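Ticket reopened. Same input as before:
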Amino acid sequence: MIDSELRDLYQELILDHGKHPRNHHPLKNANATADGNNPLCGDRCTVYANLHGGTIADISFEGKGCAISQASASLMTEAVKGKTTFQARHLSDLLIKMVKGQPVAGDMDELGKLVALDGVKEFPMRVKCATLPWHTLLAALDGQSDANDNNREVESI
Amino acid sequence: MSSTLFREQKRAFCAEEVRADFPILDTCVRQNKPLVYLDNAATTQKPTAVIEAIDDYYRRNNANIHRAVHHLSERATIAYDAAREKVRGFLGARSATEIIFTRGTTESINLVASSYGGSTLKPGDTILVSFLEHHSNIVPWQLIAQRTGASLQVIPMDNRGVLDMEAARQQLASGTVKILAITHVSNALGTVNPVSDLIKLAHQHGAVVLVDGAQAVQHFPVDVSELDADFYAFSGHKIYGPTGIGVLYGKEKLLESMPPYQGGGDMISSVTFEKSTWNELPSKFEAGTPDIAGAIGLGAALDYLTAFDLQEIAAHELDILQYCIDRLSELPAVQLIGNAPARAGAVSFVVDGVHPHDIGTFLDRDGVAIRTGHHCAQPIMDFFQIAATARASFALYNSRSDVDALCESLKRTITLFS
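Engineering reply: fixed in the latest deploy. New output:
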């Protein structure tokens, strides 16, 4: 009934993490935090990290979104916890390339469970859902509080 | 003279028949699924008459307007001016000089905010908008408020998505409101606002009113003179015309009093390095070469639409809207957002346990095109404490079977996620 591309996108692991996201809470001892926002759909995401000596000692996220963005954020927290910030940046780069359908030749193994997000590349309109938490993570690692700080805001009502 | 004697013969409206006027509706999408297009509030599809008018313009009549004396320029100018006259007739404006062509509703609103607002607003003045506005009827006013020192106030709404008229009355009675900018129909919820009452109230208290008609004119007849609107804006592409063309209606005395919005060719009377003087209306507000093909396409769209009795179309669309509300209400996981008694064109909903984006992707695989997201109306989303909704929106070529396709696909999606 549902086609193979759709099944690849919404595979069990994605649905599971989408419904029951891991590390979905604020982090009390966070020392690097950033907010991400997808202005196209209004989804928001906050990433909290506790960085210790160049390592992501702990990480969590908050925010609501579609199954893809929640699963991507949830899998991200599992994948980068305990990694060095260098490794996390490398993983972000690979993940973003993969979901955009750009070549990640030979490195797919490094992505581990994250390959579950490979199906996103067939859905160009959904790429931003998958990349939002990763861009937010990169902003947090860069010491920026806002993953979209290039946006000029006018006074809100 | 009896007006019935001269009443035009209208084309009988039949939804199944008019589908054949829109070639794209025969398209199959994704894996050979017939297209079920329910994203009409974002943009409508175009009838053959519009596509051919644009094609014919570029093949046979293309030249710049109001400039040269040659044959093609004359034909292009006549066609462009005829399109303006069609818009005048469609909106019930007194004079074609009150019709300004813009790029769309957004530019129309920015024009009024910048030119009228920029030249009249002072610190202490208030711009009143409603909770139901699209971002394009909020942000231009925020920008001009910042520039002039005026402040922005918002007419509140209740949880049906209906404006609080008592609050509006009090806000207008304060005497500081100089501009009321109000949407005729909410793009996110489909609420039809009582703009006629609001205009009367605003005028009693000395405020000028801009009506955002982007989601109204394609659904029911609008007469700006009867409404007594000071400004009325709409977009061509949401009323079966091309993208890139829109309309600003403005009362002549207001447009006369306003400074130009943009400078350039066609909008001047004379230019020296010391001083320039402005052309007459409407040219004063149409700097540069306009979207000639777009205007002609819009004219063709209005011809197409007004060949029907607009009341018949309104009744047909209301029937589909009500049918959609009834069918969605049968699904326990679905929660409708907004429940205004007066509605047109759109229904918004959320589904327990399935994010609108995921709904959108699943429906799309069944060929059903809907909009998911915040609909450029984030204050409404914040009010209902949601990030996004799924929205089905209707046009004259939709039928109950489109709603059936939506509901069947939605049911399958809900089952897969439960």
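Confidence is low (pLDDT under 50) at residues 149-157 of chain A. The two ends of chain A are 46 Å apart (CA to CA). Please confirm and we'll close it.
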